[in-house]
Amino acid sequence: MAERPAGRAPFLVSPIRSVRFRLLAIALLPTLVLLPLFLGVTIARWSAKFDDVLKAKVNGDLTIAHQYMARILENTGEKIDALGRSAIYRDVIATGNSGALAVLLEEKRAGLGLDFLHVVDRNGRVVAAAPSGASPIADPREPVLSAALGGEALTAIDIFAEDQLGAISPALAERARLPLIATPNAVPTDRETETRGMVVYSAAPAPSLAGNGALVGGILLNQNLVFIDTINDLVYRSASLPEGSQGTATLFLDDVRISTNVRLFENRRALGTRVSAAVREAVLGEGQVWLDSAFVVNDWYISAYEPIVDSHGKRVGMLYVGFLERPFFEAKYVTLVTILGAFLLVALASVPLFLRWAGSIFRPLEHMTETIARVEAGELGARTALPASGDEISRVALHLDHLLDLVQQRDRQLRSWNDELNARVAARTEDLEDANRQLEATTRQLIMSEKLAAIGEITAGVAHEINNPIAVMQGNLEVLRSLLGEHANIATTEIRLIDEQISRIHLIVTKLLQFAKPEEYAGYADRQDVSVVVSDCLPLVKHLLKRGEIEVSRSDTATMSVLMNRTELQQVIINLMVNALHAMPDGGELRISTLDQVRDDVRGVCIRVSDTGRGMTPEVAARIFDPFFTTKRQQGTGLGLSISQTLVTRQGGSIEVESAPDAGTTFTIWLPAA
Question: Are residues 581 and 549 part of one domain?
Answer without folding.
Answer: yes
